[in-house]
Structure formats: structure tokens, C-alpha cells
Amino acid sequence: MIKLKTKELHFDEKLKKKIKNRDDRIEELEYDLNDANETIDKLEDKVSELQKIVDYFKELWKKLIEFLQSKFFSNDKYDDFINDLYEDDILDDNDIDVINNNKNIDKSDDFDLHR
Predict the structure, then answer these.
(1) CB count, 10 Å around CB of 91?
(2) Which single residue of 41, 52, 64, 78 has CA 20 to 30 Å from 86?
(3) CA 65 to chain centre
């Protein structure tokens, strides 16, 4: 009977140790998950800030194109300016077509003017 109790105690100790190890591992995983969630939150904030910057430059580009459309052929000063932008690879053929034809900028293009 003493041997049986000793075996039971030994089994209980092993079981308690396994449970403790499992609880420790669960705690580690919860910590890792919280850390990953914080990282995701930080990345989402960065993506949001980058989207704001992209949107700002899209609007700025749109305003520049609209300005150039209104000035194209109005006088030689702006013609030279537009030609300089083209020669310096700031504007491409598509941009010049939009400006030259005084078209509305296609919103579906999302200002990705094939650069």
C-alpha cells in the first residue's frame, strides 16, 4: 500500500509539473500574441500615415495638372515651363496628353500615370 501511495504521489507530481509547464506555455503564448497585436497596431498606424501622404501627393498632382491645363497655350511662359517639366521627366506623354487635350483626369486611373 505504501508503494501504491508513492506511485500516486509521483504521478501527481508529474501531472502537476505538466500542468505548470502547460500554464507557463499558455502564458508565453498570450504574451507573444499581445506583442504581435501591438506590432500590428503600430504597422496599421504607419500604413494610415502613409496613406495620408499618398493622398496628399495625389491631390497635389491633380492640382498641378489642372493648373497646367488652365495655362497651356495661354502664353509662351507656361509653354516653356511645361516643356521643361517634360524634358526633365517630371511629366510624361500621358500627362502632356491630359494637359494638351484639357481632359478631366480619369479617377479610375488613380493618378498612377505609368511611371
Answers:
(1) 20
(2) 52
(3) 26
